[in-house]
Amino acid sequence: MRIGAGLVRLADANPCEQALDQFDPTSDEDLAARSTTRDVVIRRISGVRLYL
């Protein structure tokens, strides 16, 4: 396996990444109906590990 492919598999196995992937197909309008934004969801899931 190539190193790049291994790093992608490692990132995809991360629970944080999996949780973020669930929100990818969600539209901004659907998030607004839930009284939230994409930025809030990302911060809630990622915590202090990810900065926008």
Question: Could you give a quick summary of the protein structure above?
Answer:
With 52 residues, the chain is mainly alpha-helical. The protein has helices spanning 3-12, 15-23, 28-33, 38-46.
Note the topology.
Blueprint: H1 3-12, H2 15-23, H3 28-33, H4 38-46
Helix pairs in contact: 2-4
Your description of this structure?
It is a single chain. By secondary structure, this protein is mainly alpha-helical. The protein has one domain. Helix content is 65%, strand content 0%. It is built from four helices and no strands. α2 runs antiparallel to α4. The longest helix is centred in the N-terminal third of the chain and has 10 residues. The protein is elongated.
Portion in helices: 55-70%
Order of helices and strands: HHHH
Helical/strand content category: mainly alpha
The major β-sheet equals:
none
Indicate the mean pLDDT: 83
Supply the key terms.
52 residues; mainly alpha; 4 helices; 65% helix
